[in-house]
Specification:
mainly alpha, 149 residues
Length: 149
């Protein structure tokens, strides 16, 4: 019986060095850790910041568009909202136009936390952009948006 692997190790190295999915996952985790660390003093994670920011609109949005913006299914969004609702930062309200639907509202306390988070986000974001060796943060955003379509 042969102990030779079915896939040569050189293939493993090739995938390690070229796989866009792997590189995107690693970059996403590194960015998440960096923003989590920066926002920790406010009791926020990067995901909670993004979720709360997605609610900062003139009118409380329905769940569907928020889930779509954050690339989440509705079940995951509901789970992510629970700790924010418990802290009084977000409220989940019945949609007055469709009693079966829900609208998501950033509360006054939530808006205050989000406001306090903005200088931290700006500073952290500027530092990340400054570290890009290409200096082309806008190009990176364009490329990531194309992939996310």
């Amino acid at each position: 019986m042969s102990t030779e692997p079915l896939i040569p190790y050189s293939t493993t190295i090739h995938v390690r060095d070229t796989c866009l999915c792997l590189h995107a996952q690693r970059a996403a985790r590194a960015l998440a850790r960096r923003f989590d660390t920066a926002l920790k003093a406010l009791g926020l994670t990067n995901g909670q910041f993004s979720l709360m920011m997605s609610l900062n609109r003139p009118e409380p949005p329905p769940m569907g568009p928020v889930a779509q913006l954050l690339a989440m299914d509705r079940t995951t969004l509901t789970a992510a909202l629970k700790p924010l609702e418990r802290r009084g930062w977000v409220s989940i309200e019945t949609d007055p136009k469709d009693r079966r639907g829900k609208r998501l509202r950033l509360t006054a306390d939530g808006a205050a936390v989000l406001s306090a988070a903005m200088p931290i986000w700006r500073e952290t974001h500027a530092a990340v952009e400054a570290e890009l060796s290409s200096g082309d943060a806008e190009g990176l955003r364009r490329d990531l948006l194309e992939i996310a379509r």
